[in-house]
Specification:
It is a single chain. By secondary structure, the protein is α+β, with helices and mostly antiparallel strands. It folds into three domains: about 240 residues, no CATH class; about 110 residues, Alpha-Beta Plaits (2-Layer Sandwich); about 80 residues, Alpha-Beta Plaits. The protein has 18 helices and nine strands. It has a five-stranded antiparallel beta sheet with strand order 2-3-1-4-5, covered by helices on one side. Strands 7-8-6-9 form a four-stranded antiparallel beta sheet, covered by helices on one side. A hairpin with a 5-residue loop joins strand 2 and strand 3. Helix 4 runs parallel beside helix 14 and helix 9 crosses helix 11. The protein starts with 8 loop residues before the first helix and ends with a strand.
C-alpha cells in the first residue's frame, strides 16, 4: 500500500475535480491516491486491476498515452465541441438533418466506425434539443487529473510527476471556467454524453449528481476552496510532459527524422526489455506519429549476465521536446540516458548534441548462491515463493524487473525509488529464508 501523503489544499482541490467518482467508488476525498478501508487493504494490486479493467492501462506508457488522448484530440470534447459549433447542422429539420449526416458520413472508414459517428452526432443533437449545451472539456480534463493521481497510486509514476501534471491540467480548467459549479456542469454534460454512447454502462447521471451534492455538503469540502486559488506544491515545478502537444494536420506531415539511442542502465532479458519498455514506447511513438522503435540490443558480461541494454529510435526532429517529456514519465533506472546521432541532425538545428540523462529509479540485485548450500535447502525451498514474498515486502517501494540464471548464482533485479529502502524492507526475510544464505545484495542503479 502506498504511503499516505500529507494533504494540502492543492491536493484537495485536485480531488474536487473528480469528486463524484471518488465518492461513488468508496474513495477517500481527503487523501491523495488512496481509498477508504476496506478497499485500501488490497493496495496497489487492486488499483492496477481496476485501472486495467476500466482503462486498459497496465504500464506507464499506456497511462501517458491515455493522458495525452484526454488532453488532446483523443478526448470526447474534441468531437463533441466541434459538432456543437455546427449550428446550421444542429438546427436543421429532423428529416433534413438525417439526410445531411448520412451524406456527410457516407464513406465507410477503415475502422468501420461510420455508424457510431452518425449515432454520436444524433446524440449531441438530442442533448442540444433538451437544454443549452457548452463545451465538455471539463469531462476529459477531470478524468486526466484522476489518471495522474491513480497512476501514482498504481506505482506507474512517482508522486512528484503525478501532482506536477495534475496541476498543469487543473490550471487549464481554471482558464476555461469561472467556478466549481460551471466546471461541474461541463463535466456532467460530458458524463451524460458518455452514458448515452454506452447504454449498457452500469452507472447513472442521477447517482453522479447525488455524489457531487454529497461532496458539496461535506465539512471542509473541496468545493469550499476558492476556484481560482493558486495551485502549487512545495518543491514541485508543474510540467506538462507533452500532454498538450499540438496535433494539427500540418504537424502530422512527414518531418526530418533523427536517430536516438536510449541507453537503459537496466539488467533486462530481451523479452523483459520489450515488455517493460519497447512495446509501450513504440505504441506511444506511433500513436502520436512521433516516430518508431527501429532496433534494440543487450550487452552481456563474460558470464552471460546482462550489463545494460539499448533501444534504437527513429524520431521526428520537431517531436524531441514531447519525447523528452514522455520518456521522463517512464520509470527508468538512474544512470540511463539518450543521445541523438549527430549525423541525423539538420545543420540549422539547435538540438542538444551531448547525452541527456534520464531515470529516477535505483536498482537492487539479489544474488542467490546456487552451488554451496546444503542439497536439502535447494530441495525444500521454492524460488517462486521467495519472489512472491519479496514482492509483498516491496509493495509500493520496488518491483522485480528481470532475473539471470548463471552457473553458480541466480540474480533477481529489483528497481524502485530507493536502494536503501528496498534493502531494509527485505533484510529480515533474506536473513531468515534458507535459500538466501550466502546471498549477495548490491546496488546496480
Amino acid at each position: 500500500m502506498c504511503k499516505k501523503i500529507k494533504m494540502t489544499d492543492t491536493m484537495l482541490w485536485l480531488n474536487g475535480t473528480y469528486a463524484g467518482i471518488i465518492v461513488e467508488n468508496g474513495g477517500d476525498i481527503f487523501s491523495y491516491g488512496t481509498r477508504k478501508k476496506p478497499f485500501q487493504l488490497f493496495g496497489r494490486r487492486s488499483e492496477r486491476t481496476s485501472l486495467k479493467a476500466w482503462w486498459g492501462i497496465t504500464n506507464t506508457a499506456e497511462l501517458f498515452a491515455q493522458l495525452q488522448a484526454k488532453c488532446g484530440e483523443g478526448g470526447l470534447h474534441h468531437f463533441f465541441d466541434e459538432v456543437l459549433l455546427r449550428k446550421e447542422l444542429m438546427e436543421l429539420p429532423e428529416e433534413q438533418f438525417h439526410e445531411e449526416i448520412q451524406k456527410e458520413f457516407n464513406e465507410e472508414d477503415d475502422s468501420g466506425l461510420r455508424g457510431q459517428v452518425i449515432r454520436d452526432v444524433q446524440i449531441i443533437r438530442e442533448m442540444a434539443q433538451e437544454k443549452a449545451l457548452g463545451t465538455i472539456i471539463a469531462y476529459d480534463y477531470c478524468l486526466a487529473i484522476m489518471l495522474c493521481i491513480r497512476g501514482y497510486a498504481c506505482g506507474y509514476i512517482p508522486f512528484e510527476r503525478s501532482i506536477g501534471m495534475a496541476i498543469v491540467i487543473a490550471k487549464r480548467l481554471q482558464e476555461h471556467f469561472r467556478s466549481w459549479d460551471e466546471m461541474n456542469e461541463s463535466y456532467l454534460t460530458g458524463y451524460e454524453y458518455w452514458l448515452r454512447q454506452n447504454e449498457d454502462a452500469d452507472q447513472s447521471l442521477e447517482d453522479r449528481i447525488k455524489a457531487l451534492d454529497e461532496v458539496r455538503d461535506m465539512e471542509n469540502s473541496p468545493f469550499s476552496l476558492p476556484w481560482d486559488m493558486e495551485l502549487c506544491h512545495p518543491g514541485i515545478i508543474p510540467i506538462d510532459y507533452g500532454l498538450f502537444s499540438d496535433n494539427t494536420t500540418a504537424q502530422k506531415e512527414a518531418k526530418s527524422m533523427v536517430h536516438i539511442t536510449l541507453h537503459l542502465n537496466a539488467r533486462l532479458r530481451p523479452i523483459d526489455r520489450r515488455e517493460l519498455y519497447e512495446d509501450g514506447v513504440d505504441e506511444t511513438l506511433k500513436k502520436y506519429r512521433m516516430g518508431e522503435i527501429v532496433g534494440g540490443g543487450t550487452a552481456q558480461g563474460k558470464n552471460g549476465e546482462v550489463e545494460y541494454c539499448d533501444i534504437e529510435i527513429s524520431l521526428k526532429e520537431d517531436a524531441i521536446e514531447a519525447f523528452i517529456g514522455f520518456i521522463n514519465s517512464v520509470p527508468i533506472p538512474k544512470g540511463s540516458y539518450f543521445k541523438i546521432d549527430e549525423a541525423t541532425i539538420s545543420e540549422k538545428s539547435c538540438l542538444q548534441r551531448d547525452k541527456i540523462d534520464v531515470g529516477q529509479l535505483e536498482g537492487l540485485a539479489l544474488y542467490l548462491n546456487g552451488v554451496d548450500l546444503p542439497e536439502e535447502v535447494y530441495k525444500s525451498c521454492d524460488i517462486n515463493y521467495l519472489v512472491e514474498e519479496l514482492d509483498k515486502l516491496l509493495e509500493c517501494c520496488g518491483q522485480l524487473f528481470s532475473y539471470f540464471e548463471g552457473n553458480t548464482e541466480t540474480a533477481l533485479y529489483f528497481y524502485g525509488e530507493s536502494f536503501d529502502k528496498m534493502k531494509d524492507r527485505i533484510n529480515s526475510f533474506t536473513e531468515d529464508y534458507p535459500l538466501c544464505r550466502q546471498c549477495r545484495i548490491i546496488q546496480i542503479a
